[in-house]
Design a protein that fits this description.
The structure holds two protein chains of two kinds. The longest helix of chain A has 14 residues. The two termini of chain A are 20 Å apart. Chain A has a ten-stranded mixed β-sheet with strand order 5-4-1-2-10-9-3-8-7-6, sandwiched between helices. Chain A is α/β, with parallel strands linked by helices. Chain A is 33% helix and 25% strand. Chain B has one domain: MetI-like fold (Orthogonal Bundle). The radius of gyration of chain B is 21 Å and the shape is globular. The chains are: A alpha/beta, B mainly alpha. At the A-B interface, α3, α4 and α7 of A face α7, α8 and α11 of B. Bound molecules: adenosine-5'-triphosphate and magnesium ion. Magnesium ion (MG) binds next to α2 of chain A.
Chain lengths: 289, 261
């Protein structure tokens, strides 16, 4: 993915004090009633480099929340805070607060492994394990000691991921025999096999062709009834098509560094028709600074 | 070409020397007669021993270094491994003699010899295991972490299987290296005209490189031919091991290529 030009800071058209006072939602948009995640003043550091500041938003249950913004604004960094996947990178640090179902995600005593079983993740590039289609779905429930009829569970998850009809005759074949779009749906099946509450998706369609992309989008909307979905996307149409709420991130270059920040969050309809921040408007309409 | 020509010349020369001694009696008679059966068995026994001792320790240490170690333990292990890698084989043999053979009262024996050979190839196995694991795309580790799999299960079920051809290929090459060694064995194995036994202690073990070494210094065409024949058999074992290693290594490369998508 080539670097997208970051929006240069023009004179803000909105009074900065108003901006500072509205870190949460665009004016007039209430927070989701039933929040799975509540993020307050999140900041994130890779060693001495601050990658994120001032992220405050809520993610509603059984909603699709889209994260959009230019390259390098910290979308991946943010979404990986939600399942503590950043814990794997040495030297990183989180400030602020993320509540998951009302309790702090980063509190001492909370084990990242337990969190990740409840918050699944689908990555930018399909990354099935070099195993059979069947084993890709069965591995996590097996390791986690989920006692179920494994054949049924595998069928159920593949069906849910809209892949069953295409693979039912070749469950023992290698996952690599599938097309990219099928592999990505397999990764979704693998993620839901441990029955998470949330599925995080980081640009799940960026490696796929338009037809495969549409299939994943349809799938996301279908899965919404059972799961909360957070999706990072560079595709404005995708965000507009599938999401209920949209958060816009940008890169702040004002203090010399390059720190990602959230500009605003609101219902997708409102964000795409009447964003309250000029930068959001510029980004959505394709004007970068 | 420049490398291949002398190698071929040497092999042809050894073959030529060995001609009078080549025949089935090599495999059916012992070194007190016209064969080298006992030495072949001894060398194969060493291979098995090295596979068990250096294989488990080396692969274990490689996995630990690649996936679990950090900070001080990692640095200590790496330093130790580098020191071992730089140690001349004759020194390893001597240390084995002073400690195992003399101090521990193991005498010249199978275990003393296997330990000396194992120490020799250990750093190589550690390194190839670590590299094989590091070559597994990090996306797989992330996927496993994203599913909440514990580290141990991730390593066992997700990272090790694709790394296996690379690890085994390293093991096989390590065995090939140990096959041609003489120095560490001179101090630890002893020799015997009898077939080797499975006794770990106090029983001397005959082996091929020793036949090459001793028979070449005995005057007489027959001894020289036997030495050369032992060399040919050693080369044969080496070639088989290297061939297996290459097949596995190419499979490992294919594995990685396929997974990087
Ligand atoms: N592992 C890391 N170590 C150090 N810095 C990192 C690391 N990962 C990301 N960064 C930095 O953090 C900033 C945000 O990166 P991030 O990947 O979160 O952006 P993004 O919004 O997902 O971009 P893209 O749209 O290109 O995927 C970037 O400046 C990046 O260089
Ligand atoms: Mg990203």
């Amino acid at each position: 993915m080539s670097e997208m030009p970051a929006p240069t800071m023009t004179e803000p058209t909105v009074d900065p004090s108003v901006l500072a006072a509205t870190p949460v939602d665009a004016q007039g948009t209430p927070r989701p009633v039933d929040a799975v995640f509540t993020v307050e003043q999140l900041a994130f550091f890779y060693g001495a480099n601050q990658a994120l500041r001032d992220v405050s938003l809520s993610i509603g249950r059984h909603e699709i929340t889209a994260l959009i913004g230019p390259s390098g604004c910290g979308k991946t960094t943010f979404i990986r805070c939600l399942n503590r996947l950043n814990d794997l990178i040495p030297g990183t640090r989180v400030e602020g607060r993320i509540d998951f179902n009302g309790s702090s995600l980063y509190a001492p005593g909370v084990r990242a492994i337990d969190i990740r079983r409840r918050i699944g993740m689908v990555f930018q590039k399909p990354n099935p394990f070099p195993k059979s289609i069947y084993d890709n779905v069965a591995i996590a429930p097996k390791v986690n000691g989920i006692r179920a009829n494994m054949d049924e569970l595998v069928e159920e998850c593949l069906t849910r991921a809209a892949l069953w009809d295409e693979v039912k005759g070749k469950l023992r074949d290698s996952a690599f025999s599938l097309s990219g779009g099928q592999q990505q749906r397999l990764c979704i099946a693998r993620a839901i096999a441990i029955r998470p509450e949330v599925i995080l998706m980081d640009e799940p369609c960026s490696a796929l062709d338009p037809v495969a992309t549409i299939r994943i989008e349809e799938l996301m909307v279908e899965l919404k009834s059972d799961y909360t979905i957070v999706v990072v996307t560079h595709n404005m149409q995708q965000a507009a098509r599938v999401s209920d709420r949209t958060a816009f991130f940008t890169v702040d270059v004002s203090e010399g560094g390059r720190t990602g920040m959230m500009v605003e969050v609101g219902s997708t309809e409102q964000m795409f028709t009447a964003p309250s921040d000029q930068r959001t408007d510029d980004y959505i309409t394709g004007r970068f600074g | 070409m420049l490398i291949a020509a002398p190698a071929i010349a040497v092999i042809v020369g050894v073959f030529h020397q060995a001609l009078p001694a080549l025949g089935w009696q090599l495999f059916t008679k012992r070194t007190n007669s016209t064969g080298i059966q006992n030495a072949i068995l001894g060398s194969l026994l060493f291979l098995l021993g090295v596979l068990i001792v250096a294989g488990t320790i080396g692969v274990g240490a490689g996995i630990y270094l690649a996936e679990f170690a950090s900070g001080r333990t990692e640095r200590a292990l790496r330093f130790f491994s580098e020191v071992l890698a730089g140690m001349p084989s004759i020194v390893i043999g001597y240390i084995g003699y002073v400690t195992l053979v003399v101090e521990f009262h193991w005498s010249y024996s199978l275990l003393a010899a296997v330990m000396a050979l194992s120490v020799l190839v250990l750093p190589y196995i550690v390194k190839t295991t670590e590299v094989a694991l590091r070559n597994v795309p990090s996306a797989l580790g992330e996927a496993a972490a994203g599913l909440g799999l514990p580290r141990s299960a991730t390593v066992r079920q997700v990272l090790l299987p694709p790394a296996l051809p690379g690890i085994v290929s390293g093991l096989v090459v390590a065995l090939a290296i140990s096959t041609g060694e003489l120095a560490p064995l001179l101090f630890t194995a002893g020799f015997s005209d009898n077939d080797p036994t499975l006794h770990l202690f106090h029983h001397q073990v005959p082996y091929l490189t020793n036949v090459v070494f001793t028979d070449i210094s005995i005057p007489g065409a027959r001894a020289h031919a036997t030495a050369a024949a032992a060399g040919v058999v050693t080369l044969g074992i080496l070639l088989v091991l290297i061939a297996i290693g290459r097949i596995l290594a190419s499979r490992a490369r294919r594995n990685t290529a396929r997974m990087s998508l």
